[in-house]
Amino acid sequence: MIGDKIIFLPIIGSTNDFLKENFDKFPSGTVVVAEVQTKGRGRNNRTWVSPEGGLWFSILFKPKKKVKPTFFTKAACVAINKALNQIGVENKIKWPNDIYVKAKKLCGILTETIFEGQHPKVIICGIGINVNNQIPEELSDKAVSLSQITGRPHDLKKLLKLLLTKINYIVKKYSTKPEALTRVWKERLMQKEGDEIRFLLDGKFVNGKILEIEDEFIVVEVDGKSLKLFSLDVIVT
Ligand code: BT5
User: Fold this and answer.
1) 81 within a domain of the structure (yes/no)
2) Which atom of ligand 1 is closest in space to residue 17's alpha carbon?
3) Are 81 and 99 in contact (CB under 8 A)?
4) Residue 224 CA, ligand 1 centroid: distance in Å
5) Which residues line ligand 1 (CB under 6 A)?
6) Which domain holds residue 206?
7) For residue 50, how far is its CA from the centre of ligand 1 (angstroms)?
8) Angle made by CA atoms 58, 112, 195, in degrees to the nearest 5
9) Residue 149 Cα distances to 92, 139, 155, angstroms
10) 184-202 residue pLDDT tens
11) Record's superkingdom (predicted)?
């Protein structure tokens, strides 16, 4: 069960790195939570700002069956989306790994894999949610915290418990039918196939139409040409 073992750390570089270095010491389902991360990471080594008051945690998976690592990103996205709806916070998934409230990012997910040959031996799903923490000045136009949205502080342990229960449920429910999870995830995305979007491409804003959404890439039509993109800076309005 996810969260049967939870390790609470006051301060660490990154909970993902902690599990990458120590995965052999802990069973599948172990969760590591840090009060503060000094080297919190996003994708492509981008910085994830992680001061006190936020919920910064990683889940260790050691899958016995063949599974795509993106299954866990989608499962976490859908579980968090549902958990937040349950506490009255309307939100959407932004492809591929974020949770947005209106036009601001509340949560990011970073799934990392250690392969044994072709087989994913260890999958680490790191989740960062702004809860009671301050949003730094430089992110204030694009990030938001749960306490800013609801106007009250939130109990981090209670929230963690709710999220772990939901993630556990979603992982179990869809482990034998991952394509059904993909459908649910797509339904809850901010952007859908067919949508006209404005996005950043090589430093320039362009308009395009989403042709196809996959786990790892998105196909966009721009000026009659289709482009396969592995990350997408959509202008969220
Ligand atoms: C993510 O990356 O959104 C994945 C973030 C995962 C963080 C968790 S916390 C627990 C675990 N341990 C880790 O070290 N990481 C995981 P990406 O899509 O690349 O977005 C990164 C971008 O989000 C940055 O370049 C900033 O623009 C923005 N950002 C940084 N900190 C933020 C924050 N606290 N809230 C909202 N946006 C933030």
Assistant:
1) yes
2) 14
3) yes
4) 33
5) 14-16, 37, 40-43, 46-50, 56-58, 97-98, 105, 108-110, 126-128, 130, 139, 143
6) 196-234
7) 8
8) 100
9) 14, 16, 15
10) 999 999 999 999 999 888 8
11) Bacteria
Q: Is residue 72 part of a domain?
A: yes
| Measured distance CA(41)–CA(85) in Å, rounded | 26
Output the pTM of the full model: 0.96
200 and 165 together in one domain = no
CATH value at residue 172? 3.30.930.10
Same domain, 202 and 182: no
pLDDT of residue 111: 97
Q: What is the pLDDT of residue 27?
A: 98
Same domain, 183 and 164: yes
Clarify whether residues 99 and 207 are in a common domain.
no
Start-to-end CA distance of the chain, whole Å, equals 39
Q: Verify that 205 and 106 share a domain, yes or no.
A: no
> Which residue is closest in CA terms to ligand 1's atom 3?
108
Rounded to whole angstroms, how far apart are CA atoms 168 and 159? 14
Q: Quick one: which atom of ligand 1 is closest to the CA of 128?
A: 9
Same domain as 181, residue 208: no
The verdict on 104 and 41 lying in the same domain is yes
Residue to mutate (ligand 1; options 19, 48, 59, 140; most atoms within 8 A of CB): 48
Q: Specify the number of domains making up the chain.
A: 2
Q: What is the ipTM of this complex?
A: 0.99
In degrees to the nearest 10, what's the CA dihedral of 100, 102, 103, 104? -50
Residues 220, 105 share a domain: no
Is there a contact between 54 and 136 (Cβ–Cβ < 8 Å)?
no
